[in-house]
Design brief:
- The protein is α/β, with parallel strands linked by helices.
- It folds into 2 domains: 6-265, Rossmann fold, CATH 3.40.50; 266-323, no CATH class.
- It is 35% helix and 9% strand.
- The protein is built from 10 helices and 5 strands; from the N terminus they run E-H-E-H-H-E-E-H-H-H-E-H-H-H-H.
- The chain has a 5-stranded parallel beta sheet.
- Helix 4 packs across helix 6.
- The two termini are 34 Å apart.
- 41% of the residues are buried.
């Protein structure tokens, strides 16, 4: 049985049009196997990262336990008999998707879609779903602003509770998109496509995107999924929206620069050796224990520029695309 020769995955926040994008690919990529996401039993821990893999990666990076999940995941994906395998699940890039693409064959083509949507509307959508009210839900599907292994400084956001955490999350994922664009530049198998959801809902934008994936078609031939206008109803009221708008205007972030600078400083999400220069207590997060070791070398230093990025277990093979 032949395995796919092209794999397509997403880097995005969620609430950004992943379901629409998966349907767009399904309708227009002949012979492709396309999924939105796998959830629930028996998929968590096998096709989708579970909470342990998400929290581990965002505490200590691409350690062997995380690598083990991605080996299983990619082995499953390669069982497809289609020539193109696509999965638009927003969870993957938060748990080491990009760092582990070296586990896919060297002969395949890999396309990563940086799917973006209007930042405020994405922020507001997460608020309306109460995604950051319960940390257990956050640990399953999103990112916790209290994680130590992050790009955007969460300190200005945390006093604003769930509003601040939701906004930090949107900024962090946008920054990670920019970071990953730099991280994979030397891998000839990988192409990153930065696209806006607002552009995909018209034939011209969709056709341009499909051509970038190597599946060219005329705009007149593009089959667009039915896209319902967003409902006007909201779980939160006008007062909450005014709070959200004020916070969005106050806490601005150049997320593209943040992600690029993180990479250029030699810092890596896959091998966050700079975290071991923090006080051990700063690495505690609920039930996950603090990282042990000689963590008091340099007081409360958060980052050390131009550190060599090495695997936490000593082997370069444990960190994938982290150099």
């Amino acid at each position: 049985m032949d395995a796919p020769s092209q794999f397509i995955y997403a880097i995005t926040t969620g609430r950004s049009g992943t379901a629409f994008l998966s349907r767009l690919l399904h309708l227009n990529l002949a012979g492709a196997e396309v999924h939105h996401e796998f959830r629930g039993f028996p998929h968590f821990g096998r096709r989708t990262p579970d909470a342990s893999q998400l929290t581990t990666f965002n505490h200590v990076g691409n350690v062997p336990e995380v690598r083990s999940f991605w080996r299983k995941k990619f082995n499953e994906d390669q069982k497809s008999s289609a020539r193109v395998y696509a999965e638009m699940a927003h969870v993957h890039a938060k748990a080491g998707l990009v760092e582990n693409l070296d586990l896919l064959p060297t002969s395949v083509r890999i396309d990563l879609v940086r799917l973006e949507r209007n930042s405020f509307e994405t922020f507001w959508s997460h608020l309306n779903r109460f995604d950051f009210v319960q940390p257990h839900f956050t640990w399953l599907f999103n990112l916790d602003a209290r994680y130590p292994n992050v790009i955007v400084d969460p300190a200005p956001y945390l006093p604003h509770r769930i509003f601040g955490q939701a906004l930090w999350y949107v900024h962090e994922m946008e920054a990670r998109g920019a970071y990953y664009q730099r991280l994979v530049v030397s891998d000839s198998r990988i192409r990153i496509h930065r696209v806006r959801f607002e552009d995909l809902v018209n034939p011209f934008g969709a056709a341009t995107f499909l051509r970038s994936l190597g599946h060219g078609c005329d705009p007149a031939e593009v089959e667009l999924p039915r896209h319902a206008a967003p409902a006007r109803r909201s779980s939160m009221g006008d007062a909450e929206r005014q709070v959200a708008e004020a916070l969005f205007a106050e806490l601005t972030c150049d997320t593209e620069a943040a992600g690029q600078n993180y990479h250029e400083e030699g810092l890596r999400l896959g091998a966050p050796v700079h975290l071991f220069f923090k006080e051990a207590g700063a690495l505690q997060h609920e039930s996950l224990q603090a990282v042990s070791g000689n963590s008091k070398k340099a007081g409360n230093t958060v980052r050390a520029g131009n550190l060599k990025t090495r695997g936490l277990s000593g082997g370069a093979g444990d960190v994938g695309l982290s150099s």
